[in-house]
Design goal:
Helix content is 51%, strand content 4%. With 399 residues, the protein is mostly helical. It has a two-stranded antiparallel sheet. Strands 3-4 form a two-stranded antiparallel sheet. Strands 5-6 form a two-stranded antiparallel sheet. Helix 1 packs across helix 12, helix 2 packs antiparallel against helix 14 and helix 7 packs antiparallel against helix 8. Pfam families: Glyco_hydro_88. Keywords: Hydrolase.
Length: 399
């Protein structure tokens, strides 16, 4: 017998298909599974794959962090200790007994990408009380204290990207910053945390569409930056996904009576409105470049779609967004399962159509144009898609 949620997914799927033709990638049976079951199956597949990934992926940086964040939510939803043990195993490969973060981590590089995995340090400290996790987390907190900033106080994305703020950086740093501030009693820092979101939105938001450009260069020195605004040229889906997830995760730790909480809630509402407008009406998904849905080469992209579904669902569940936005999440989730999820022979699932990377500047130079974003490889089971898929599946199960 199908679960009530499984029947609900089928009903929603039928209503979406009535909007126009679409071709599901996954089998019909997958779309009838409950979200938590899919999250567990994705965890099984990704945990196996991550064990054999090379050093380029298995580093103390954001890909590990977002992948393990998905595993963490599956653990909390199921109570199955094996997921927690896996998180502990993966993090302990990088944290020494004295709390030193080994391997690729370099404090003086001042890259926000390395902060994200700190959220798992806080989880492990809460659960075990072991001081090595607190010591390692303290190192990351000290990095934020010394992080180079724009004139307005916004964190540089990395030392090698001077005077630049990227939407990605908000997810890398702010949820950790907020959770650390709550756990270790740093209430004054929440002004700074809110300011990071406010500064980023101020400089990246397009007044006409409401969408956010991927990056902002205060110096206007980069070839990708507009000489008047400092903005990069395009609205990249996953960049807005990072930002949307960042704000709903940060609000979870933000003091309820803090005067700047209202600013964050207002940003959350603006994001919800504009992303609903660019949701694909046929599939319920979102495009790699959000404002050019039918331009040749553009495609429906799975990591951004999962990030948006997660953010809408959590936003509704936590009361940050009105309940009407649950339908946006439901429509998106049906599209995700029908288009991106493929069963494996061992009862796991693969998550497909993930943009493997997206950035600005660097070598070879990434100019932030539409042509650049559609040129990057498309991957299956990349952690930047797998983690958010587990996260959005757990959130859909909760709501």
């Amino acid at each position: 017998m199908k679960s009530r949620y499984g029947l609900f997914l089928v009903a929603i799927g039928i209503s979406i298909m009535c909007l126009g033709p679409w071709i599901p990638v996954a089998s019909a049976t997958v779309s009838e599974h409950e979200p938590l079951d899919l999250a567990k199956r994705m965890a099984i597949t990704s945990m196996k794959e991550w064990r054999v990934m090379g050093p380029a992926k298995d580093r103390f940086q954001y890909e590990l962090g977002v992948f393990l964040r998905g595993i963490e939510l599956v653990w909390k939803a199921t109570g199955d200790k094996s997921y927690f043990d896996y998180i502990k195993f993966k993090v302990e490969r990088h944290v020494m007994d004295n709390g030193t973060i080994a391997g690729n981590y370099n404090f003086t590089e001042f890259t926000l990408d390395n902060i994200l995995t700190g959220r798992l340090l806080l989880t492990l400290y809460r659960q075990t009380g072991e001081m090595k996790y607190r010591t390692a987390a303290k190192t990351l907190r000290e990095q934020l204290r010394q992080q180079p900033r724009t004139r307005e106080g916004g964190f540089w994305h990395k030392l090698v990207y001077p005077y630049q703020m990227w939407l990605d950086g908000l997810y890398m740093a702010e949820p950790f910053y907020a959770e650390y501030g709550t756990l270790f009693h740093e209430p004054k820092e929440f002004n700074d945390i809110a300011s990071q979101f406010i500064i980023m939105e101020k400089h990246s938001r397009d007044s006409k569409s409401g969408l956010l450009y991927h990056g902002y260069d205060e110096s206007r020195a980069q070839n990708w930056s507009d000489p008047k605004t400092g903005r990069s040229p395009s609205f990249w889906g996953r960049a807005m996904g990072w930002y949307f997830m960042a704000i709903v995760d940060t609000l979870e730790y933000f003091p309820k009576h803090h005067p700047k909480r209202a600013h964050l809630l207002a940003i959350t509402h603006r994001l919800a409105i504009v992303l609903k407008e660019v949701q694909d009406s046929k599939s319920g998904l979102w495009w790699q470049v959000l404002d050019k849905p039918y331009k040749k080469g553009n495609y429906l992209e799975s990591s951004a779609s999962a990030m948006f579904v997660y953010s809408y669902a959590k936003g509704v569940r936590k009361g940050y967004l009105p309940k009407m936005y649950l339908s946006v999440a439901q429509k998106g989730y049906v599209g995700i399962v029908s288009n991106f999820v493929v069963e494996t022979a061992d009862m796991g699932v693969n998550y497909t159509r993930i943009a493997s990377v997206g950035g600005l500047g660097g070598t070879p130079y990434r100019n932030g144009t539409f042509e650049y974003y559609i040129s990057e490889p498309i991957a299956t089971n990349d952690p930047k898609g797998v983690g958010p898929f587990m996260m959005c599946s757990v959130e859909m199960a909760r709501v």
